[in-house]
Specification:
Layout: H1 13-63, H2 68-77, H3 81-89, E1 92-96, H4 98-110, E2 114-118, H5 127-136, E3 143-147, H6 156-166, E4 171-175, H7 184-197, E5 201-204, H8 206-209, H9 226-244
Parallel strand pairs: 1-2, 1-3, 3-4, 4-5
Helix pairs in contact: 2-3, 3-9, 4-9, 5-6
GO molecular function, one term: acyltransferase activity
InterPro entries: SGNH_hydro_sf (IPR036514)
Keywords: Acyltransferase, Transferase
Length: 245
Amino acid sequence: MPKHSLKKKPMNRSLLLSLGAIIVVGLLMFTVGKVSQGNQSHVSATRSAKQTKKAKVAKLNAKIHLTKREKKIAAHYKLTKLETRTASKTSITAIGDSVMIDVKPDIKRVFHHSAVSGSVGRQFYSLPGIVRQLKARGHLAKYIVINLGINGPPTQHDINSVLKTVGKKRQIFWINTRVPRHWQNTTNRMIARNAKKHSNVHLVNWYKASKGHKGWYASDRVHLDLTGEKYYARTLAKRVSEVLN
């Protein structure tokens, strides 16, 4: 009986391509599913954390009984009991430019234990020296408020110098700026970047809070009127309470 060589038929090329496509699609769907699951878990965790925080704040608010002075402040600045009490009890050192001079009466009223230093034309480059002097004299509080930016942008070198002097145990509340100058966005980006990088630096977003409120500003669109000063202090108080509670 003659021997016949058995030859395997080559697999159809189109079939191979189809199988490859099915595998690729399957892998993609699996990856997308995992990413989606991860995102949903992150969203759920974030929502849960917010709900927990909200419940905690509500509980703290319910326990607070404001003094007559605090009730007036809460009503005038539209603050909750917790925000009012937190500001009233928190000692701060506030350093800024001419805007800080404008808002000084409001800040001292809301933050009962505060030392406020403002100066016309003050820029970021003067801040490292000011902070060093205050610390050397024992006048630098645990909580520091910085408002500088209408007269020019900061440099990272000056910011680093301030952070080094302040140290890790103090908290900085850095207020960004709204000013019709080309350095506005540069200043705000640098503040936001450092707030994201350093756990003891907290952005106070005045730029966002003042959006659409031209009436809060004087005719020069730099300094604030009485309404603007009130909301400036309110924005700071709310942020301080959010971080500390």
